[in-house]
């Protein structure tokens, strides 16, 4: 290593030592590709070395000097894609990984599926070719396909197999834009060996991330009439319930969701494998086995599977007779998939296809305006909040008493393990990457809100944790 730990960036820069010369001028197609990846703001790349992208690997080390993106070596393509998946969720930005052609993509395909189900922006690059048969060695024939993207196209947001250096650069910039746009998801770009190792064409146009057409679009706003209808349904409900989902990996979510919960006097539960609200909030009933069926109006915010959000699987399409469901998500514009993940159509009464966070903010403003000066509505909300606070206190007390009564059992209970770990980290900065959503007990680990837990992997495959 030629540098020491840099506390400013909280990482160990691994700049290769004793490289010949310091000329940063690009010489090969792969050098230009490495520069493009750096210009897209991709700080790390997770990879398993493979001959099909040897040119790009060489450029990442010798041309851009393992700076940006910095290489994180992995042992299998499944791990490389899974690490990129987790990194994208933790940072909130698109991540990058590179996989070997054919067999590498086959091995990593399960992790691609996880990222797709989890709506996570992962840029996956794969080596291929050479496209020109005359340039292929024996091993290149073994590792070449007519359409390599077919392996993951059914569960990718977008794929491309560009034939030239210009097309490759254009594809990389589009890939990042597509991956980062709502609804997010993994994209795959196959980079030809011939393009990587060839000289740079004199007429090459280098794209810029600052150009308007390369920027991610602004969040989609909700339809004003649908937003007003949602406000009316929530305020007219006897017992409204708010269920918040995947956007809970973003810390700013809590303020908007909590405002909605408090303005409406609604009960609240987290969607499957996510946390969006403080555990000790008096309206948080996560873990309550009955509240989903008792609510007469349910607001589902960024729930990938709205049927699951209302407890609709296992015999009933709705939680109870007469229940109304408001679904706010971008799920209706997700590209089609060959799997049945989240495919049972929920019994939605009001659909808002828009950015859930923006909708939460605007819905809170609309409800606040309706409540201003409405004393009767304010009294109904206050009475409901008092009832829910009592229900919350009883629920948390029961949850704790249940495990404390059997805390010394052998073998050790999961509740005991969770309690002891939480006691150790309580009062310190902590972050929870993954937990088992079935056995993890509610009410013991105290979350302050969104942004403290990354949630599950989405598709249920191994490796993400």
Layout: helices, strands, pairs:
Blueprint: H1 29-39, E1 44-47, H2 54-62, E2 70-73, H3 77-91, E3 95-99, H4 103-117, E4 122-128, H5 138-142, E5 158-160, H6 165-180, E6 187-192, H7 193-197, H8 224-235, E7 240-244, H9 253-264, E8 267-270, H10 291-294, E9 297-301, H11 306-309, E10 324-329, E11 350-353, H12 356-371, H13 375-404, H14 414-425
Parallel strand pairs: 1-2, 1-3, 3-4, 4-6, 5-6, 7-8, 7-9, 9-10, 10-11
Helix pairs in contact: 1-2, 1-6, 3-4, 8-12, 9-12
Report the principal-axis shape. elongated
Structural class: alpha/beta
**Widest beta sheet: strand line-up:** 2-1-3-4-6-5
The number of strands is 11
Overall pLDDT: 90
Report the helical percentage.
25-40%
Q: Uncertain segments of ≥5 residues (pLDDT<50)?
A: 1-7
Q: Span between N and C termini? A: 29 Å
Radius of gyration: 25 Å
Tell me what you see in this structure.
- This protein has 465 residues and is an alpha/beta fold.
- It contains 14 helices and 11 strands.
- Strands 2-1-3-4-6-5 form a 6-stranded parallel beta sheet, sandwiched between helices. Strands 8-7-9-10-11 form a 5-stranded parallel beta sheet, covered by helices on one side.
- The two termini are 29 Å apart.
List keywords for this structure.
465 residues, alpha/beta, six-stranded parallel β-sheet, five-stranded parallel β-sheet
């Amino acid at each position: 290593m030629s540098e020491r730990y840099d506390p400013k960036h909280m990482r160990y820069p691994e700049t290769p030592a004793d490289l010949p010369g310091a000329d940063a001028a690009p010489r090969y197609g792969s050098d230009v590709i490495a520069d493009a990846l750096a210009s897209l703001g991709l700080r790390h790349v997770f990879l398993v070395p493979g001959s099909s992208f040897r040119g790009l690997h060489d450029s990442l080390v010798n041309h851009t000097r393992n700076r940006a993106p910095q290489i994180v070596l992995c042992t299998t393509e499944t791990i490389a894609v899974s690490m990129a998946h987790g990194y994208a969720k933790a940072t909130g930005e698109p991540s990058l990984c590179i996989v070997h052609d054919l067999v590498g993509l086959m091995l990593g395909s399960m992790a691609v599926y996880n990222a797709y189900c989890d709506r996570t922006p992962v840029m996956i690059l794969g080596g291929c070719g050479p496209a020109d048969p005359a340039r292929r060695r024996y091993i290149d024939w073994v590792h070449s396909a007519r359409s390599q993207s077919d392996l993951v196209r059914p569960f990718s947001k977008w794929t491309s197999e560009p034939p030239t250096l210009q097309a490759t650069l254009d594809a990389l910039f589009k890939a990042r834009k597509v991956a980062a746009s709502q609804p997010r998801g993994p994209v795959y770009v196959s980079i030809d060996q011939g393009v990587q190792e060839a000289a740079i064409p004199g007429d090459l146009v280098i794209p810029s991330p600052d150009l308007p057409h390369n920027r991610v679009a602004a969040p989609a706003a909700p339809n004003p009439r649908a937003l007003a209808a949602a406000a009316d349904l929530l305020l007219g409900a006897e017992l409204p319930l708010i269920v918040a989902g995947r956007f809970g990996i973003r810390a700013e979510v809590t303020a908007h969701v909590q405002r909605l919960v408090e303005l409406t006097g609604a009960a609240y539960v987290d969607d499957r494998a996510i946390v969006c609200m403080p555990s000790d909030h008096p309206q948080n009933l996560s873990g309550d086995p009955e509240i989903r069926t008792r609510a007469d109006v349910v607001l589902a915010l960024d729930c990938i599977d709205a049927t699951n959000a209302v407890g609709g699987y296992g015999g009933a399409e709705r939680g109870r007779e007469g229940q109304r469901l408001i679904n706010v998500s971008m799920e209706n514009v997700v590209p089609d998939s060959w799997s049945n993940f989240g495919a049972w159509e929920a019994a939605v009464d009001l659909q808002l296809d828009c950015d859930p966070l923006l909708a939460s903010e605007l819905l809170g403003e609309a409800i606040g305006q309706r409540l201003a000066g409405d004393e009767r509505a304010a009294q109904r909300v206050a009475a409901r909040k008092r009832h829910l606070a009592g229900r919350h206190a009883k629920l948390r007390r029961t949850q704790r008493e249940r495990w404390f009564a059997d805390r010394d059992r052998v073998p050790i209970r999961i509740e005991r393990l969770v309690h002891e770990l939480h006691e150790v980290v309580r009062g310190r900065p902590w972050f929870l990457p993954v937990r088992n959503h079935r056995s993890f007990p509610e009410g013991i680990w105290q979350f302050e809100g969104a942004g403290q837990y990354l949630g599950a992997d989405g598709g249920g495959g191994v490796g993400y944790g």
